[in-house]
Design the sequence.
């Protein structure tokens, strides 16, 4: 048997494993209170996730088969099946990829990268901290982590990796794998630090007010998040640097090289100037979204439209951006399945079932158990907003029944909503952008995601609780 035949056989076996797990769940007796349709969708969803892990086929192909099965089995109606592909976050991801294409095609991404290298390029760790600091500065006024990490920072990171000759594949570990993983985990942390640094947090605050009459101010959230968040942003790049080290560590000639390359590039071209204006326009509109009332996706599409009208990118560039359309398929399909499970009541049943495990516990251990379960339930979600909608109200009710401090409880679930998205490659909007860049394989992404999640929890709980006590949250 030659290599191609062995590979084909291995793919079949991995596919059969995913199918077998799905069949087992499909015919598993539904627990009391769970609809048959919910178990069927769970079977398809779990089989799809297993398929994404074992990769018998490319990710987009695995998900499109799962999407197809939801229709063939009449588990969901066609309108529900296609709803994920109309999700605004999915299209924000597509637009971010197209904005990145503009940075690459015009060379503006390289120019920005050289400017970064000239200022911070003597050490790779310095570059990492500069990127994380940029995310932190933007995060309080950017209520879309996809817009922040995908539309603003990703093109800069991608330009840096290309500058050092680190591309997906054989050269990925030079510097690209480290920077991609580091920034993804950085945006996860900044998303937890401020009430307005991700879209799901204002929703969570509104649900807390409507269902339990609990309010927490923007300032209190920021104060509660700043100390543990800053520690995470200081430690995480360093820890990843040690356990997932880049090959390039010292770059003593980087500043001189960047200066020389900038001179070679010469003055900014017309296309670069247009794209720079588009970039700042998008940034300004995203930052002032509370005033202009424009959705982040609409803003990104405005940017794409301007680039097309001015010739910065062509329609052929749009059609050729395979990563964007691949992300549309697999992320949209996962959003649809996760949303369907919520609509069918399965996620609510899971949350309600946890209540028995905290009966009789004091409020602190009960709250910790609830937050941990809520945190790691994100393996089953492709959207922070969907998770907050489905699971936060019942979990909040359980915590309130255990007499947990109201504001602390809301903040902890808000923190867990953001940080929990870091464990998978589909947990939130920036996930497919950074994963689809091709620098980190799936197994490594999940292993590092789990490890960083533990580090985050140790910091947020270990440092946070004394800090929150000093702030009067409990």
Sequence:
């Amino acid at each position: 048997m030659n290599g191609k035949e062995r590979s084909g056989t291995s793919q079949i076996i991995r596919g059969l494993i995913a199918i077998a797990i799905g069949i087992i769940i499909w015919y598993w007796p539904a627990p009391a209170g769970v609809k048959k349709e919910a178990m069927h969708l769970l079977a398809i969803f779990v089989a799809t996730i297993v398929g994404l892990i074992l990769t018998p086929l490319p990710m987009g192909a695995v998900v499109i088969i799962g999407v197809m099965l939801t229709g063939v089995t009449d588990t969901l109606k066609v309108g529900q099946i296609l709803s994920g592909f109309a999700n605004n976050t999915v299209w924000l991801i597509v637009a971010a990829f197209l904005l990145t294409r503009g940075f690459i095609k015009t060379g503006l991404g390289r120019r920005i990268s050289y400017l970064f290298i000239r200022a911070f390029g003597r050490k790779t760790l310095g570059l990492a901290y500069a990127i994380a600091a940029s995310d932190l500065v933007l995060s309080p006024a950017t209520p879309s982590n996809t817009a922040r990490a995908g539309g603003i920072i990703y093109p800069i990171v991608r330009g840096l990796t290309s500058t050092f000759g680190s591309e997906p594949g054989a050269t990925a570990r030079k510097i690209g794998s480290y920077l991609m993983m580091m920034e993804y985990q950085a945006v996860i942390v900044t998303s937890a630090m401020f009430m307005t640094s991700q879209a799901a947090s204002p929703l969570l605050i509104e649900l807390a007010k409507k269902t339990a009459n609990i309010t927490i101010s923007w300032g209190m959230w920021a104060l509660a998040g700043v100390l543990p968040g800053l520690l995470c942003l200081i430690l995480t790049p360093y820890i990843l640097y040690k356990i997932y080290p880049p090959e390039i560590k010292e770059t003593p000639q980087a500043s001189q090289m960047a200066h020389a390359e900038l001179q070679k590039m010469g003055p900014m071209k017309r296309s670069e100037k247009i794209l720079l204006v588009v970039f700042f326009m998008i940034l300004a509109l995203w930052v002032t979204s509370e005033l202009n009332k424009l959705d982040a996706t609409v803003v990104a599409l405005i940017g794409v439209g301007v680039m097309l009208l001015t010739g910065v990118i062509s329609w052929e560039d749009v059609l050729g951006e395979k990563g964007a359309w691949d992300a549309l398929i697999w992320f949209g399909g996962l959003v649809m399945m996760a949303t369907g499970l919520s609509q069918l009541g399965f996620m609510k049943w899971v949350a309600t079932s946890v209540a028995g495990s905290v009966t009789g516990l004091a409020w602190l251990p009960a709250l910790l158990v609830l937050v941990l379960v809520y945190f790691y339930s994100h393996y089953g979600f492709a959207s922070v907003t969907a998770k907050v909608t489905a699971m936060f109200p019942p979990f909040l009710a359980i915590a309130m029944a255990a007499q947990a401090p109201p504001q602390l409880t809301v903040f902890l679930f808000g923190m867990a909503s953001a940080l929990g998205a870091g464990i998978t490659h589909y947990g939130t909007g920036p996930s497919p952008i950074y994963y689809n860049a091709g620098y980190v394989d799936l197994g490594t992404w999940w292993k590092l995601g789990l490890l960083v999640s533990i580090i985050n929890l140790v910091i947020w709980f270990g440092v946070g609780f004394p800090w929150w006590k000093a702030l009067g949250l409990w």
About this structure: Residues 1-76 form one domain. The mean pLDDT is 86.
